[in-house]
Amino acid sequence: MSSQFRLMSERRFLPFFITQFLGAYNDNLYKNALVVLMTFEAARFTTIAPGVLVNLAAGIFILPFFLFSATAGQCADKFEKSRLIRWTKLLEILVMALAALAFALESLPLMLGALFLMGAQSALFGPVKYAILPVHLREDELVGGNALVEAGTFVAILVGTIAGGVTISLPGGALWVSVAALSVAVLGYAASRAIPTAPAADPGLRINWNPLTETWRNLRFTREDRTVFPAVLAISWFWFYGALLLSQFPGYAKDVLGGDEHAVTLLLAVFSVGIGIGSLMCERLSGKHLEPGLVPLGSIGLSLFAFDLWWASPMFAAGSAPLPLTMVLAGASTWRVLFDLLMIAVFGGFFIVPLYTLVQARSAAAHRSRVIAGLNILNALFMVVAAGMGAGLLAAGLSVPQLILVGALLNAAAGLFLCVRAPEFPRRFAAWLRGATADRPGDAR
Question: Residue 424: left if φ>0, alpha if ψ -120 to 50, beta else—which one?
Fold first, then answer.
């Protein structure tokens, strides 16, 4: 059995995996339930347009990552990590209880307040989520562990998103969402109690409560290793690229494929499965060691298949009635589109897993969590910029396929920048292509 799947039977990994999986599921269960509710029933709560509300909700969720990530990184370095995870899971139970109260009272401000607190809880969990893996996993298990976490996260996002949309649409949907979210939060806390102890990296650390100065300090930590900072930028670029692409799924499904909401779900499912496949393949492709050479490979695939997605996109007659999913799948170009989307995601897995592993392996243990906190702040910033750029280009008259082409070209430029900024990546890529085994990637610095 592959070591990455063997980890699923071991206490040093399985409880953590279940905890983070349920957390990602719950985030997306509540977020999408709220988005669907605001989209179709906004008039019950406010006179604000549904589109404005949905974008407001997205901003409210991401704001805590700017406000609290710096403090979260310090806490993850200062305190014992399994205890900190249990604290964050208790906070999740309280937040879901508030969300249930908001649904019961039909109070939009309370719903948005719960969304903000859920973002805060996710921001607190982020640094410890990645910093705990190098504590419990050996060097030859770190790639596989990260692969499982990334694959599980995207599957949780998919299932949670679908469950949130379906459940809120049922009769009494708000009650069912509340029960589900609270139940999942409690299960997550129960799983977290089995996570083994992970000692504090810097117990004598004095917390700096100023998010501005601490954020700057965290970003300075990312520059201590000559490949960590380019890796941090590359991870943030991946989230920029992913946010730009994923935000186009509704428009692509409707205006390009001519489908309904089921076509949107199909695109999300294909992308999530692809990320999982690519992530899980990394351990085998890298020989169970950190292989930076997979990053250029991933970057190439992200651009090539996005370019073909633009090229293969059909021209659907605007204004026509949405087609059922069976008719969308009967389209001549649909399967090529789905294959391109799957391969974009597969190569995304090749791209992101080695980068997270590199950041974990090469960041100093004493402030590894603060490096990851700085990374999370940059991720949030890049995703906000992606949303603004996507909205701006669409408003300027670009079609969704043309926006995908722009993303493919920008990704090619970003990949070239990464290779110039960190020569280890193209050097290891060349060695990987030659099948070199003498110079193991984990030893190259």
Answer: alpha
